């Protein structure tokens, strides 16, 4: 019994960590997207209720009423995570229909008020025996919900990471990489829950494994950055919706070719790509072409998204710099900045992806230097 309690105490550790994590999210860790932070904090608070309830059950403390109250918001947990991801990935799009995600938890609350709470308030020894179909729903609906909403969150994140390359020439601070790790941590918790139901050995070590998952959640959340420039990303969403109109109007091949020549000439002759903060909207203003038309021309005339188009030009600039006399007095960060990259990390990653060589390997391959 002592050994079980020693392991079960990690339920209490997990609950405490989640209460703290929810409070930090509520205060606004990045102070960029307050609505997303609030939804994320709700997710953590409800998850904290779950672990607090389990720890009370393990050590047989607290009333049955208290444990039931802690269980009531459980079905709202994953919808809160989904809403947080929606607000992080699409901050300016309207969030219509969000109450529908919380219909199941409202039905569970109503069921509890009518069927369970009167029994608990009268302090009877046992809850009433539930009909088999009700017990089945209560037992398995949450698992279905977990799988569904985790998948929906993953789809939102992947869509975001694809869309930002249509409007931004740098993605290191707007790709929500921290959120990907958060979803991986959540998947780890889901798998532990499922495995613990099928294997008693896993059940014994589940408290410790859950605690590891909570640490991963905390690490993912606390490492988030200022995730995007609001103005730039709003253009992305508007452009995504308006591009349908552009496609319907169908620029002629002659128009696409003419606009393509203008874009290529202005961007390369004036070296507009050297601006490290260049976005689709900024480029459209400098060239004098609407953002929707520019996006359409890049995708259908040049055959590249905005991210590919700009960073390939920057890579060509970097190739020239690496083989020039300037390379002798500039370090790699200096080369990166001169070529228009906003960081050395972005420079290395992009250069290697396009050329299959690191900058140093490129120098060696073209000069014979060791």
Give short descriptive properties of this protein.
370 residues, Rhopdopsin 7-helix transmembrane proteins, Arc Repressor Mutant, subunit A, 2 domains, elongated
Could you estimate the helical fraction of the residues in percent? over 70%
Mean pLDDT, to the nearest integer, reads 82
- The CATH class name of the largest domain reads Mainly Alpha
* N-to-C span: 66 Å
Low-confidence region ranges: 226-248
Per DSSP, the total helix count is: 16
Helix-strand topology string: HHHHHHHHHHHHHHHH
> What percent strand?
under 5%
Major sheet details: none
Structural class of the secondary structure composition? mainly alpha
Supply the CATH architecture of the largest domain: Up-down Bundle
What would the principal axes of the Cα set say about the shape? elongated
Number of strands: 0
Q: What's the number of domains?
A: 2
Q: What value does the Rg take, in angstroms?
A: 27 Å
CATH topology-level name of the largest domain: Rhopdopsin 7-helix transmembrane proteins
Structure report:
This protein is mainly alpha-helical and 370 residues long. The protein has 2 domains: 2-228, Rhopdopsin 7-helix transmembrane proteins, CATH 1.20.1070; 231-367, Homeodomain-like (Arc Repressor Mutant, subunit A, Orthogonal Bundle). Helix content is 73%, strand content 0%. It contains 16 helices and no strands. The chain has helices at residues 2-27, 34-58, 64-71, 77-89, 103-121, 132-163, 177-198, 200-222, 230-249, 253-269, 280-287, 291-302, 306-322, 332-338, 344-355, 359-367.
